[in-house]
Amino acid sequence: MIRYIIKRLLWLIPIIFCVAFIIYALIDLAPGTILDTISTENLSPEEYQQLVEQYDLDKPMIYRYAKYMLNLLRGDLGRGEATGLDVWREYTSRFPATLKLAIAGLIIGVALAIPLGIIAAKNAGTWVDNLVTGFTMIGISMPSFCLGLILIICFSYKINIFPAGGFDSGIRSMVLPAVASGLLMAGTTARQTRSSMLEVMRADYLRTARAKGVPEKRVIRKHALGNALIPIITSIGNTLAIMLAGSAVVESVFSWPGVGRLTVQAVNSRDATLTCGCVILTCIVFVVLLLIVDLLYALVDPRIKAQYTAKKRKGEKKHEKS
Amino acid sequence: MKNPETAVTTKKKNRSRAGETWHRLKKNKGAMLGLAIIILLVLIALYTSIFWDYNTMIVKVNIPERVQPPSPVHPFGTDDMGRDVLIRTLYGTRYSLIIGFGATAIGLIIGVLLGAVAGYFGGIYEDIIMRATDIFASIPAILMGMVIVCVLGASLPNLLIAVGITAVPAFTRITRSMVLTIRNQEYIEAAKCIGTPNLKIIITEVIPNSLSPIIVVASSRIGSCTIQAAGLSFLGFGVPAPAPEWGAMISLSRNYIRTAPWMTLFPSLFIIIMVLAFNILGDGLRDALDPKLKR
Question: What is the ipTM of this complex?
Answer without folding.
Answer: 0.81
